[in-house]
Amino acid sequence: MDVCKRIDELRKQRGWSINNLAMEAMLTQSTVNNLFVRKSEPKLSTLRAICNAFGITLAEFFEEESKEPVSERLLMNEIKKLSVEQKRAFYIILKSVK
């Protein structure tokens, strides 16, 4: 697996810039930028910080994309970002799916 490519895919799925990823992962922008410029694999501590920013575990990061279910943790992190009105609408949608 190309770790940098996977990070970039996850970053783009969220619509984040490299700076957004650095801020969310609490890393310097140069640390994150160097991953893409040098195409070097990150240190484990850096990868953990990036996974935390994405709301996924290291195991989920390395899962094959075709087998990757929606992680409860990722879903909960996204729900937390919703406004009160959006959360109500989401709840109504969930109730209607039953």
List keywords for this structure.
98 residues; mainly alpha; 434 Repressor (Amino-terminal Domain); 7 helices; 69% helix; elongated
Written overview of the protein:
69% of the residues lie in helices and 0% in strands. By secondary structure, the chain is mainly α. It has one domain (3-97): lambda repressor-like DNA-binding domains (434 Repressor (Amino-terminal Domain), Orthogonal Bundle), CATH 1.10.260.40. The model has no long low-confidence stretch (mean pLDDT 87).
What spatial form do the alpha-carbon principal axes imply? elongated
Number of domains: 1
Largest sheet: none
CATH first level: which class? Mainly Alpha
The helix fraction, in percent, is 55-70%
SSE ordering: HHHHHHH
Low-confidence stretches: none
Which structural class do you get from the secondary structure elements? Answer: mainly alpha
| Rounded Rg | 15 Å
Let me know the CATH homologous superfamily.
lambda repressor-like DNA-binding domains
- Treating each run of at least 4 consecutive H or I residues as one helix, how many helices? 7
- Write down the CATH topology: 434 Repressor (Amino-terminal Domain)
User: What distance separates the N and C termini?
Assistant: 38 Å
CATH architecture: Orthogonal Bundle
Mean of all residue-level pLDDT scores: 87
